[in-house]
Amino acid sequence: MSFNNEIDSVSILPLGGIGEIGKNMMVIEIDDEILIIDAGIKFPTDELYGVDYVIPDISYLLKNRDRIQGIALTHGHMDHIGALPYVLKKLGDVPIYGTKLTLGLLRGKLEEHNLLSDTYLRHVYPGHSVEIGSFDVEFIRVNHSLSDTCALAVHTPSGPIVYASDFKFDQTPVDGQMADIHRLAELGDEGVLALFSDSTNAEHEGFTRSEKEVGETIEKAFKDAEQKIIVASFASNFHRIQQVIDAAMQFNRKIALSGRSMLNNVDIAKDLGYLDIPEGILIDTNDVDKYPSDKVVLLTTGSQGEPMAALTRIARGDHYHISVGDGDTVLVSATAIPGNAKAVGHTINQLFERGADVIYEAITGVHVSGHASQEELKLMLNLTRPQYFFPVHGEYRHLHLHAKLAQEVGVPQENTFIPDLGDKVHLSKDRAYIEDSVRAGRILVDGLGVGDVGNVVLRDRRLLSENGILMVVVTIDNDGNILAGPDIITRGFVYVRESGDLINDATQKAEEALRECEEQGITEWSTLKSNIRDALDDYIYHRTKRNPMILPIIMEV
């Protein structure tokens, strides 16, 4: 099945991954059919107080759910699959296509949400194509920090669209699986309509170093280490994990795994054949103390300084099994995701303070990126020779630098696009233009709540975090007469025991405001609250130069 050859145009609609690193989601429309590529999360920045994840706004997809033919996945990182549990709850059982490891990691996420149903998970081998509705989608192997990553070629009547969101060209991959440069070149010969390409490392000159180089650093660290070794890494970087396992075997050390995602992902990768773990090398964290310290490796989460992750707790000294001290070696084998640098730096400082020898990216080769640098980005452009170019997967500075690289290798400036989220770009062999825009943006996930945290809630959380809260509690009767109070309770504003005069004066101000209302016969709760708030706002700021949230609470008996 395929589209009518008379159809000569296609629409592209980014719902995530443009101007940001995370929540990747791209929509391709031909005729009356929709194909979705990826559905990822973004981790919250500091101003999103208390938010767990950010996911794409799928309002447009909900209005057009009958047109959706399926979801094709490039790979199993959370910024590409993490939103699927939330998306599927809204869209229903949409068929999902991906490689074996991608679907294996996705299964774990769907199980957590009680959504797992193998009826809509469709396995595709790298190098093969699949029909998704009338879309012919080809999965092309590329290198990345996660096995089984693919670029996608969506074949349209106007030519193939190549979507290479996360990739690099590693000439010595750990698993021996080379990127399919030959197929990318063939598509270029056929005439690529549009290329969507990873912009994460558009600022970095040259080529991204091979993952095998990290193995050499790991091996040297193991050789030099005299006591316990702790390695913190992304739980999905199985090439890195395999190299740690190999080094542990070489130097006769046992490995203990710590962190829920590390335990879960290693189990998945081992079951699917993506990790070779010799029998007897793994031990439980409870048994670490039963072995000499120079015979143990702890492989853990926490490379991003997450407050409750294993490495962070070890650095604080409150891990229930593992401690770190003089002579221990810690490898932080990851780079800080934007927004996490401060937390990572704090964790490293604490580890040094406890006497550990810390090896981290800024001073060694203990980490390499999974994303292409400038020369590889140029290579992708020269292989595919697209008519139109869309830099994706990057903040705006990355996208604009990548656009300049495309122009350097011959893509006309007028054929390079950086659309905003929600812009629907119409593509044909003759021209490309933004057709219209749809609702797009971010939905905030906080606990079990999806989309119920908005700007007002975030503003209140910011105020609470900066200045605390002052609550005024008063009890009145049906006629508005004060029966009890006002009583003032504060949290995060001042230390009450040392601020008795301030609290007493504030209580008097609130009481005066209530007496004025009582004398004027005002019993409307909203007016009472407003008067209390107005009376205290100026007074509190004049006395403290702070603006706590003032929350009047009125009870009627």
Question: How would you sum up this structure, described in words?
Answer:
The protein has 557 residues and is α/β, with parallel strands linked by helices. The chain has 3 domains: 9-206 and 369-450, Ribonuclease Z/Hydroxyacylglutathione hydrolase-like (Metallo-beta-lactamase, Chain A), CATH 3.60.15.10; 216-359, Metallo-hydrolase/oxidoreductase (Rossmann fold, 3-Layer(aba) Sandwich); 455-556, Roll (Ubiquitin-like (UB roll)), CATH 3.10.20.580. Helices cover 32% and strands 25% of the residues. It has 15 helices and 26 strands. It has an 8-stranded mixed beta sheet. A 6-stranded mixed beta sheet has the order 8-9-10-11-12-19. α4 links the parallel β6 (96-98) and β7. α5 packs across α11. The termini are far apart. It is found in: Cytoplasm.
Quick gist of this model?
This protein is α/β, with parallel strands linked by helices and about 550 residues long.
**Which runs of at least 5 residues are low in confidence (pLDDT < 50)?**
none
**CATH fold-level assignment of the largest domain:** Metallo-beta-lactamase, Chain A
Q: Main beta sheet: strand number and arrangement? A: 8 strands, mixed
Which range does the strand content fall in? 15-25%
Category by helix and strand content? alpha/beta
Q: Could you tell me the number of beta strands?
A: 26
Binding site for Ca(2+): 50, 52, 446
GO biological process, one term: rRNA processing
Keywords: Calcium, Cytoplasm, Endonuclease, Exonuclease, Hydrolase, Metal-binding, Nuclease, RNA-binding, rRNA processing, Zinc
Subunit structure: Homodimer, may be a subunit of the RNA degradosome.
